[in-house]
Design brief:
By secondary structure, this protein is mainly beta. The chain has a single domain, classed as Hexapeptide repeat proteins (UDP N-Acetylglucosamine Acyltransferase, domain 1, 3 Solenoid), CATH 2.160.10. The chain is built from one helix and 19 strands. The strands form two sheets. Strands 1, 2, 4, 6, 8, 9, 11, 12, 14, 15 and 17 form an eleven-stranded parallel β-sheet that branches. A hairpin with a 2-residue loop joins strand 18 and strand 19. The protein starts with a strand and ends in a 5-residue tail after the last helix. InterPro entries: Hexapep, LbH_gamma_CA-like, Transf_Hexapept/Carb_Anhydrase, Trimer_LpxA-like_sf. It comes from Gilliamella apicola. It holds the Pfam family Hexapep. This is Gamma carbonic anhydrase family protein.
Length: about 170
């Protein structure tokens, strides 16, 4: 892993986090308890804050960046799937962002939402909690069932357990 201080901007990383060796954490980045940052993910907090909440995960090849003075806030128990781009947006608790999705400046994903794979979410998406969001541009499709919301939370919990396993047993062979 490469963790960089940029001028006065220094990452704040809880000791319980898992950060893959190939991940890059730069500048004003806050990682709360139980966060996992997976292989080749980049979190570049060079011009505003990136804050990842407790027990959230940022999966392989995802990029999180910000616009000047517009932070990127990820709540608790959030799963950010593979190849996702988050840019100066807010993702509330218990959400799941599907693989290959892009969430743009000032977009806000409500609590307990699921963003379908390869979606493009702009700031003009109306705010709602507990819904399925899909498309490019993304639209609200329907309300999620209680079972689907619980699946979001279980997914985040799985990554907390898997991160502990990686912290304890991952051994580089070269």
């Amino acid at each position: 892993m490469m963790i960089y201080q940029l001028g006065d901007l220094k990452p704040q990383i809880n000791s319980t986090c898992f950060i893959a060796k190939s991940a890059e954490i730069i500048g004003d980045v806050i990682l709360e308890e139980g966060v996992s940052i997976w292989f080749n993910a980049v979190l570049r907090g060079d011009i505003a804050t990136i804050h990842i909440g407790k027990n959230s995960n940022v999966q392989d090849n995802s990029t999180i960046h910000i616009e000047t003075d517009i932070p990127c806030i990820v709540g608790e128990n959030v799963t950010v799937g593979h190849n996702v781009v988050l840019h100066s947006c807010t993702i509330e608790d218990n959400a799941l962002i599907g693989m290959g999705s892009t969430i743009l400046n000032n977009a806000r994903i409500g609590k307990n939402c699921l963003v379908g794979a390869n979606s493009l979410v702009t700031h003009s998406l109306p705010y709602q909690e507990g819904c399925l969001i899909m498309g490019a541009p993304a639209k609200i499709i329907r309300k999620l069932t209680d079972e689907e919301i619980q699946a979001n939370i279980k997914n985040a919990q799985h990554y907390v357990s898997n991160a502990k396993r990686f912290n304890q047993t991952l051994i580089p062979l070269t």
